[in-house]
Amino acid sequence: MAIIYEDALKKNIASGNLLPVYILFGEDAFLKTTYLNKISRSIAEPDDVFNYCKFTGSCDLQAVYDAAMQLPFMSERKCIILNDYNFLDCSKADFERLTELLQEIPPEVTLIMYFDSVETDHKKGAKFKKLISCAEKSGGAAVLLNHRSRGELVKMLCDGAAKRKCRMDSVVGNYLVET
Predict the structure, then answer these.
(1) Using an 8 Å Cβ cutoff, are 83 and 56 in contact?
(2) What distance in Å separates the CA atoms of residue 108 and residue 75, rounded to the nearest whole number?
(3) Which residues neighbour 44 within 8 Å (Cβ) at sequence distance 6 or greater?
(4) How far, in Å, CA of 61 to CA of 22, rounded?
(5) Does the pLDDT of residue 1 top 70, yes or no?
(6) What is the pLDDT at residue 119?
(7) Distance (Å, whole) CA 103 – CA 88
(8) What is the residue-wise DSSP string for 30-71?
């Protein structure tokens, strides 16, 4: 079971070769939302009623399946977003339908599953491991987005200052992160 991290996701988005399935999970809600928006907006804008579909956890899974099986309209790709689907408490038939969807996703569709409030445990959760496995079989990826370390945050601040033609010492970056 391979799980990728933020650096690999950045490279994938920059390459333009989007995967058919992304499962975004982890502790950092800001990073999950940021990458959700980057992936989805590279496919379709949220006001594109034909090629952008967003579903919440309380949705009918058949509607998600039907939307995914429809071809994109006047576009190369279609984006389906499934937010906080509670795969832990769903019926066995719904879970099977979800795994079937992850494995049969059409090549012109990108399905993005992300979890804000549903607990995901990629080390112990058997159902979550199965979701990740099904995503991998279709050429997709599970992306673990946890909080950045202090060193990564300091480097990000210093690099951001350098891009703006300023200089920031790592001591100042450390102070900013600490406060």
Answers:
(1) yes
(2) 9
(3) 51, 52, 75, 77, 78, 79
(4) 17
(5) no
(6) 74
(7) 19
(8) HHHHHHHHHHHHHH--TT-TTTEEEEETTS-HHHHHHHHHSP
What burial class does residue 162 get, using C-beta atoms within 10 Å of its C-beta: 0-12 exposed, 13-18 middle, 19+ buried? exposed
Identify the three-state secondary structure at position 73: coil
Distance CA 138, CA 135 (A): 5
Q: Please enumerate in sequence order all residues whose Cβ is within 8 A of that of 57, keeping only pairs 6 or more positions apart, or say none.
A: 82, 83, 84, 85, 86, 118
Reading the block at residue 110, the tokens are 């990108």
Question: What tokens does 98 get?
Answer: 């979800």
pLDDT tens per residue, range 61-92 = 999 999 999 989 988 999 999 999 988 888 89
Please, are residues 50 and 74 in contact by the beta-carbon 8 Å criterion?
yes
Instruction: Look at residues 34, 36, 10 and name the one whose alpha carbon lies nearest to residue 110.
Output: 36
* Phi, psi angle pair for 138, to nearest 5°: -90, 5
CA 40 – CA 22 distance, rounded (Å):
11
- pTM: predicted TM-score of the whole model, two decimal places: 0.86
Alpha carbon separation from 29 to 33, 135, 158 (Å, rounded): 6, 21, 23
